[in-house]
Amino acid sequence: MGKRLFVAMLLTALIAGVGTVGAFDAASGADPFAGRWRVAEVRAAGVHTMESFQEAEALIGSTLSVAARAIRLPDGTFCARRAAEKIILRDDMQTFGSAGGSWRRIGLEASAERQYHVLQSELDCPRSFNRLLAQPRQGVFLIGYNEVYILLAKL
Fold first, then answer.
1. How buried is 144 (Cβ within 10 angstroms: 0-12 exposed, 13-18 middle, 19+ buried)?
2. What is the rounded distance in angstroms from the CA atom of residue 63 to the CA atom of residue 59?
3. How many angstroms separate the CA atoms of 120 and 142, rounded?
4. Contact (CB, 8 A) for 67 and 14
5. What confidence tens digit (pLDDT) does each residue in 35-60 have?
6. Out of 65, 101, 125, 135, which could bridge 96 as a Cys pair, Cβ 3.0 to 4.6 Å?
């Protein structure tokens, strides 16, 4: 019963778009992640497996929906979405290890000293989707899938 109630609440939030959570566009008050998105392209910032890349590539052309507290994946799975927050990503050893990598490879723009100011919304999914990342002013919206990122295009 509890699982059904949870799914019903997620569905209600997704359809109704109940209130925004976390970071938002100060000018409009709108949640930049909210809406319907098309999976456009797969990108990798650093070391990744071919399996993850190919699984993500298979999703190109499909759609997903994001609401204040939930996300509906292309296969119909609902996941909880945490509040969006402003974070700074860096091109450093802690992030990419000795193999190296760069957030620029997935389309993010650095502000200074290879720092990338982004909005992040972590996902609680039973599958391999882990977080949403965005630089709204640059028009870059991504969803993490294992160690690769999927570029999203607003519908």
1. buried
2. 8
3. 10
4. yes
5. 999 999 999 888 888 999 999 999 99
6. 101
